């Protein structure tokens, strides 16, 4: 069976924990899009980890972790993470890299930094991980696929020359930096080839056969519905699709109809890193208090360390996010963070140009939307350590049930702490 774990909103929902937990019963875990630009924080018996490149199933001996053809393969970052987890006692994981994956190059990161600097006040809030330049190159057909490292030097040099003819016009004329050197690019690719060679595989065939054999496969998404380039808050979006349906493409070898379960993760409040529309956002002391209490040790980006923007649960956005993903079940996370509140505001609608709406509009209209809040009673106690949903305080149960009604999707898991075992099933 193929299952997807994806985000409903802006990312930062807690997908890593859910993937880590479900990996106990999985055979293969696949990252199908994105790169090192967003992290999944995981707390287990080995310690606390922030994974950016590796799938969240790397902590189990019985699993195979695959970086699919849809990822932005940051090879140095991949090895940094492998060395980090192994140094902390995690057994060496079994990792495979798709021979069809494309390589994120150092010049992608440089381009990202130069462009954000050029845009200044109009910047996109990039993590400067090279993601947009990487995907731009991929779709402009000037990226380097892993398989090309194992071809002839002549073919590779010819492609490098073609790429640099285009790149150096921008670097020297627009950004006023030194041009890229063909020999340096070739040497870097050969360095990457030596590192990655033991991990490269025909993962398309491996996954195709695994589906036929009835293996349990998890597709791990990065970010969330509202960061999708087509269906999100464009242009403040990511550069690859974090939607479960894209998992069939970004993993490779998996027919779309084989994705039977789609767990969409919804945080009990809202948070986001980077620019973009965020209707239920709060500010000042109110925001700082929620930020301080949220997550494991506060709401700070796993990749950037930046303070996350925070707000109350936005059920308009979350419902839309679940619809985008085709959610079959919702995992609600970080419910425990709200235990300090007497009342908890929840966004149940938007006011757009003086009219109330209950749908998620395009960014042009979203900019003019104001939140309509309904206040729910708080439970005023610490709920960490509770193992059964029925044992939660009545108001905590009501909060989940209220959200479930608005989402239109069953909430099948509720997380009440950062650890792997802090989960309740419904």
Description of the structure:
The chain has 426 residues and is of the alpha/beta class. It contains 12 helices and 19 strands. The strands form 5 sheets. Strands 9-7-5-2-10-1-11-14-18-19 form a 10-stranded mixed beta sheet, sandwiched between helices. A hairpin with a 2-residue loop joins strand 3 (40-44) and strand 4. Helix 3 (106-119) packs across helix 4. It is globular.
Highlighted features:
single chain, 426 residues, 3-stranded antiparallel beta sheet
For the record, give the distance between the C-alpha atoms at the N and C termini, rounded to a whole number: 21 Å
Structural class: alpha/beta
Low-confidence stretches: none
Strands side by side in the biggest sheet: 9-7-5-2-10-1-11-14-18-19
Overall geometry: globular
| Biggest β-sheet strands, sense, barrel | 10 strands, mixed
The whole-angstrom Rg is 22 Å
Number of helices: 12
Give the tally of β-strands: 19
Mean of residue pLDDT? 93
Strand content: 15-25%
User: Which range best describes the helical content: under 10%, 10-25%, 25-40%, 40-55%, 55-70% or over 70%?
Assistant: 25-40%
Ordered list of secondary-structure elements with their pairings:
Elements (H helix, E strand, L loop, with lengths): L1 E6 L7 H8 L5 E4 L8 E5 L2 E5 L12 E4 L4 E2 L1 H13 L6 E5 L3 E2 L2 H14 L11 H9 L13 H22 L7 H15 L3 E2 L1 H10 L4 E4 L26 H5 L7 E9 L2 E3 L11 H10 L15 E3 L3 H11 L3 E5 L9 E10 L2 E3 L5 H4 L2 E9 L16 H14 L3 E5 L7 E3 L1
């Amino acid at each position: 069976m193929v299952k997807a774990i994806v985000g409903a909103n802006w990312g930062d929902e807690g997908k890593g924990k859910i993937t880590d937990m479900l990996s106990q019963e999985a055979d293969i875990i696949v990252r199908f899009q994105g790169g090192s630009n967003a992290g999944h924080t995981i707390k287990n018996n080995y310690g606390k980890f922030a994974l950016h490149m590796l799938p969240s199933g790397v902590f189990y001996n019985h699993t195979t972790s695959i970086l699919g053809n849809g990822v932005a393969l940051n090879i140095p970052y991949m090895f940094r993470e492998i060395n980090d987890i192994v140094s902390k006692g995690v057994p060496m994981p079994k990792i495979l890299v798709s021979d069809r994956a494309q390589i994120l190059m150092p010049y992608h990161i440089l381009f990202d930094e130069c462009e954000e600097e050029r845009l200044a006040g109009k910047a996109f809030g990039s993590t400067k991980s090279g993601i947009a330049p990487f995907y731009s190159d991929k779709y402009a057909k000037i990226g380097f696929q892993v398989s090309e490292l194992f071809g002839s030097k002549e073919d590779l040099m010819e492609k490098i020359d073609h790429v640099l003819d285009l790149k150096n016009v921008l670097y020297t004329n627009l950004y006023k930096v030194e041009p890229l050197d063909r020999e340096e690019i070739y040497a870097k690719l050969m360095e990457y080839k030596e590192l990655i060679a033991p991990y490269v595989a025909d993962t398309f065939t491996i996954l195709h056969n695994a589906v036929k054999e009835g293996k349990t496969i998890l597709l791990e998404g990065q970010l969330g519905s509202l960061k999708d380039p087509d269906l999100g808050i464009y242009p403040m979006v990511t550069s690859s699709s974090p939607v479960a349906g894209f998992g069939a493409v970004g993993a490779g070898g998996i027919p779309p109809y084989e994705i039977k379960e789609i767990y969409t993760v919804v945080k009990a409040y809202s948070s986001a890193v980077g620019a973009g529309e965020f209707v239920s956002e709060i500010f000042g002391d109110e925001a700082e208090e929620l930020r301080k209490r949220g997550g494991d040790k506060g709401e700070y980006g796993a990749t950037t360390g930046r303070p996350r923007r925070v707000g109350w649960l936005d059920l308009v956005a979350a419902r839309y996010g679940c619809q985008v993903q085709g959610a079959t079940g919702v995992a609600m996370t970080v419910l425990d963070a709200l235990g300090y509140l007497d009342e908890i505001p929840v966004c149940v609608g938007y006011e757009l140009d003086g009219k109330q709406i209950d749908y998620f509009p395009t960014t042009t209209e979203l900019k003019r939307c104001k939140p309509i809040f309904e206040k729910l009673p708080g439970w005023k106690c610490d709920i960490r350590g509770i193992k059964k949903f029925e044992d939660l305080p009545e108001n905590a149960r009501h909060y989940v049930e209220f959200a479930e009604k608005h989402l239109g999707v069953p909430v099948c898991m509720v997380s009440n702490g950062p650890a792997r075992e802090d989960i309740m099933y419904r």
